[in-house]
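Kindly review these tokens for lecture notes.

. . .
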Amino acid sequence: MLRRREAQNLETMFKTLRGFKVRMVVASLIYIVVTVLMKSNNFETGVPLEAISSIRYLFYALALLVGLLLNYLRNNYLAPKGADEQLLQRLRVSFFIVAAFFEVPILFGLIIFFMSGSTLDLYVLTMYALILLAAFAPRYRDWKEHTQHANQFSQASY
């Protein structure tokens, strides 16, 4: 079982990071609102979408690689490794890794928008980023499970 103080620390840290996650989602939606406003004010780039098709497909491929990388990091970086005094630090770092990679597909969508004026790519890549965030952002029950596993391992090693 989690000690009371550890459970409180874990819950407090998770609530703080959850607030950060909500702000990230709101920021991504603000990007969309800004691009829609720009588009409604006759935003033009002069570059047709066909002219940047290779860059566009490269960005989609890189966005898919981000998802694979997040899966790899979750399975290897966060795998329970027995007693670990720095588990809470690893959990916090894992959240910020997901947060950093969450922005990558959205940035690709923004780049495509500024190059060609295509909002569809921004919408698709933003939805993909939101799916990544939902799939890979740490969950409280997972954090609690990792901490309990580490506590059981440390008690068994005495």
The helical segments are 4-40, 53-77, 87-116, 119-136, 140-156.
